[in-house]
Amino acid sequence: MISVLVTGKDSQLAQCIRDLQENCPEISFDFKNSKELDITSEQSVAKTFKAKTYDYCVNCAAYTAVDKAEIEPQKAKLVNTIGVKNLALACKRHNVVLIHISTDFVFDGKKKTPYTEEDQTNPINVYGKTKRDGEIEIQKTLKRYFIIRTSWLYSNHSNNFVRTILRLSNEKEEIDVVNDQIGCPTYASDLSVFICKIITLNSEHYGIYHFSNEGKATWYGFAKQIIEYWQLNLKLNSVNSNEYITKAKRPGFSVLDTSKAKHTFEIITKEWKSSLYKCFLSYDIQ
Ligand SMILES: NC(=O)c1ccc[n+]([C@@H]2O[C@H](COP(=O)([O-])OP(=O)(O)OC[C@H]3O[C@@H](n4cnc5c(N)ncnc54)[C@H](OP(=O)(O)O)[C@@H]3O)[C@@H](O)[C@H]2O)c1
Known about the structure:
Helices cover 40% and strands 18% of the residues. It has 286 residues and is of the alpha/beta class. It has a domain at 2-160 and 185-213 and 256-265: Rossmann fold (3-Layer(aba) Sandwich). A six-stranded parallel beta sheet has the order 2-1-3-4-5-10, sandwiched between helices. It has a two-stranded parallel sheet with strand order 6-9. The termini are far apart. 45% of the residues are buried. Bound molecules: NADP nicotinamide-adenine-dinucleotide phosphate (NAP). Keywords: NADP, Oxidoreductase. It comes from Winogradskyella jejuensis. This is dTDP-4-dehydrorhamnose reductase. It catalyses: dTDP-beta-L-rhamnose + NADP(+) = dTDP-4-dehydro-beta-L-rhamnose + NADPH + H(+).
C-alpha cells in the first residue's frame, strides 16, 4: 500500500482526489484539513509527519485569493512560501516525495506561445510571486519532488469560476467578463487523475511539469460555454482588462505547454470543452 498525505482537504483539488479514491485501491490517502494540519506551523507539520509514515505528500493547501493577496501579502507568503518550505523540510527529514501544485500565474503573460517548464518565471502579482517562491523553496530543499503547474482550475466542489457564473445568473441580468486574458480552463478531476498516476507509477522522473486541459480560452469564452450549456438567462458583455480593474494584475497569456507531462507519463490531456461538459454532469442544479 502506498501511503499518501493530502494537505488542504477542503480544497477543490483534494475533494476531487477524494472522489477518485475508490479507483486507486493501492493508495491509502490521509486527508488533513487546515485545522488538523496547518502548513504554516512547523509544530503542526512535524506532529503530522511523526505520527505516521508517508510515501508521498500532495500539497493542495494554498492561499488562492488572488486579489486579496495584494492587500495581505504576508498572509499569502505565509501559506504559499513559508508553509511550502515547512512541508519540503518535513519531506526531506522523513524521506517523503512531495507533489506540490503551482500555477500559470508564475509567468508574466508576455509570451505568445504556450509556456514550457524551461521558460523564465516572472510573476506580476503577489499570489504568483508567493507561489513561485514556494517552488524555489522546494527546489532548494528536495531532490524528490514534483511541482505541477496548472491553470484556471474548476470542479463541482468549492468556489470556482463555474460556480460563480451559476450564482451570478441568479443575482444579475448581465455581467462584464474579460475577453483579453488567454489561458486554459482545467478540470480539477483530470488533474487529480494525473497526480494519482504519478503516485501509482512510483515515478522517479522528478521535476516541474505543466498540466492543464487542451486548447485555450478567454474568461469570456469560458463563461459563454457555461451560459450556453445551462441556457442561463444572463447577458455577457465582453470587456478588456483595462475596463475591468482588479487589485491584482493578471497575465494576458498563460497557456501551458503540457508536452513534457504527456511524453513522460504517457497521458492524453482532454480538450477543455469536453472536460467542462463532463464536469457539468456532476453538477447538482435544477
Ligand atoms: N483555483 C485555480 O484556479 C488554480 C489555478 C492554478 C493553480 N492552482 C493551485 O492549485 C492548488 C489547489 O487549488 P484549489 O483551487 O483546489 O484550492 P482552494 O479550493 O482555494 O483551497 C485551498 C485550501 O487550502 C487550505 N489552506 C489554506 N491555508 C492553509 C494552511 N495554512 N494549512 C493548511 N491548509 C490551508 C484551505 O483551507 P481552509 O478553507 O480551511 O482555509 C483550502 O481548503 C493550489 O496550490 C492553487 O494555488 C489553483
